[in-house]
C-alpha cells in the first residue's frame, strides 16, 4: 500500500512537471454564446461561465495541454480486498492541437488531436448547458486503445476542496492527491505501530486515502460542485496552487470521460444539486431512533443483555444479531457462517424468537453479504457445509477467474466465492434468499456487508470488464437488497446498512455505516477518523451514516494490543449520540473488548464491563433518544434535499475560516454544534463557537460566538451547544431539558 502511494505521488509529480505543448490551428474565438452559457478565450485560458453572473464553471489553460491520453497496463496484487497497483505506461499523447472551437448540436465543441511518441488520436471535448447552474461535459478519443485520460483545469491558491466520498484522514484536500477505488480501508491507515505490522504481514495497512466508499464528487470554496460519472480507478492531483489534474482509467470502456459541474450560492445548494442527480435516502422508520444493541451468542445471552439494558433505562428499540446465521471462530476472532439462513442451534425456532422480540417492541436485525463461504482446508476436520454455495456453483451464479473457473477468494478466516451480480438469474436468486430467509422470518433489517472485494481480473457474466465494474459492484449490491425489500412490500419498514459504496449508492442504500475502525483513539483509523468519515461522506451524498460504537478491529500483538477500553467505548458512544443511528458492536474479539453489558456464560466466562458502564451507556442512549424529534426532521430534510444529517463545518458556516480549522467538531443539523472528546485521558475539550449565541446542553449557560472556550467533559456528558435563535432552538431545548435534572 505504501509502495502504491509512492508510485502514484511520483506519477502525479511527473504529470505536473511534464505538461505537454498546446497549439491552435484555428483562430481563437473571443466569445461564444450558447443559451445561458458563454465561452471566452484569452491568451492563457478557455473559460466557460454563466453569462448572467459571470461565475466560472470551468477554466482550461491554453499555455499547455489540458487534455492528455495514454495507454497503460496495471499490474494488480490483490489480497483480502487490499490492492497494490502499479501502472505501466506504454505510450502517452501529451501534445495537444486544437482545430476547432465552436457550437454544434446545442453544445460547445472543442476538437483537435493529441500526439506523442507512437501515439496519435483525435479528441472531442463537448460542453453542454443543462441550466444556468449546471453543465455536462464529455471527452472522447478516436483511438479506443487509449485507456487513460488526464484533464487539467485552472484552480486558485485559496480554493478549498471537500468531499471525495467517505474519507477518514482529511477534511479538506487542497495539496492532496486522493485516489478513488473501493477497497478495505486498511488496518491503521498510518497509525503506528499497527499499520507497519499490517503491511508487513498482509500488505493491509492502508493509507490516508484508502476507503470503502469513495465518490468522484467534490464541492469547492468557489461554490462549485464537480462530479465525474465514470467508475474506473481515478486520481485527483490537487497539489498545485493553480490547477487540478484529474486522471481516469479505462474511460475507453465507458464512452469517454463524463462529468457534471454545478454552480451555487452556497455549499448546501451544491449538495442538493448533486444528490438530485445521484439519489437520496428515504426516511427511516420510527423504531430506528432508539438504541440498537449489537449482541451475539444465542437466545439466553441476548435476552439477558436486553433485560439488563432496559432495567438501566436504556431506550432499546432494536437488537442487531449478526450471528443469526451461525458463529464461526477463526484466527481473526468471532466470525460468521456465510450461509444465509437462520442457525437454529444458537436461536431455536428463530421465527418465534423474532416474533417474541417484536412483542417487546424490539425489532430484530441480522446480517448478510454477497459471499458464499466454503469449507476451510486449513482447519482439520472442518465440518462446515453450505447448501447455498452448492446451488450457486451448480447454476453458474459465481464470478469467474481468467480460466473460467469459480473464483476462490481467501477472506479473513476462510475461503469464499462472490455472487455474480451481473447475472440476472443470480440476482433473482439472491433476492429470493433475502425475501425468504430474512424478510419472511420477520427481520426488520440487516447489515449488507462487503461489496469492495471484487478482484480486478474477475470475469463477469455480462461481459463487463471488472476494471470498470469493481467500483460499481457495491452499488449493485445495495440495489439488489433494496429491490428485494420493495418486492416484499416492505419499503420504509426495513433498514439495511452498507459500508462499501460508490456513485449512486445513495439512490439505493437505506443507511450507511463506516466499516471497521480500530478500537483506538488513532487519528487515522480510530475514533477521530469516524468523525471525518461522517462529515466527508455527507458532502458526497451519504446523508445517513453512523459507526460501530467502540470500533470493531481488535488486535492482540506482542508489540501493542489494540483492545477496547471502557473510556474508548463510552467516548465513542458520546460521539454516536449525535448521529442518526446509535448502534453497538462487540468487535471481532468480544472477550478482549470492554462491552456495554455485563454477562457471564455457563462456562463462567465474563464480558469485560462494570455496572457504571451499563448506567453511563444508558444515559448516553437516553441523550440520543431525546434527539429523536430533531433527528426525524433532519432525516426528512435529507430525503427531500440530500443535505446530510451530520454536517461538515463548511456546509453550515462556509465563511468562518477559524471554524474550518476545527477538524473534529461537527454539526448535527444546523442548530446543534458537537465537540467530542477524541484523545485518551482528556477530560475537557477546547471548542470554537461561530458567530451568534450558543447554549450548552447540560448547563443551559449561554456563550457568545466567534470565541474559543474550554469545556469540562466528564464521561456521559458530551459537549454540545444549541444555536440560540436557530430554527430548532425550542425543539432542542424542550427535548433535552429532562436530561439536565
TrEMBL record:
Query: InterPro entries annotated for this entry?
Result: Gal_mutarotase_sf_dom, GH, Glyco_hydro_31_C, Glyco_hydro_31_TIM, Glyco_hydro_b, Sulfoquinovosidase_GH31, YihQ_TIM-like
Pfam families given in the database record: Glyco_hydro_31_2nd, Glyco_hydro_31_3rd
Signal among keywords: yes
CDD domains referenced in this protein's UniProt entry, alphabetically:
GH31_glucosidase_YihQ, GH31_N
What keywords are assigned to this protein? Glycosidase, Hydrolase, Signal
Give the family, as the similarity comment puts it.
Belongs to the glycosyl hydrolase 31 family.
Q: Would you tell me the protein name for this molecule?
A: Alpha-glucosidase
Can you name the source organism? Leptospira ognonensis
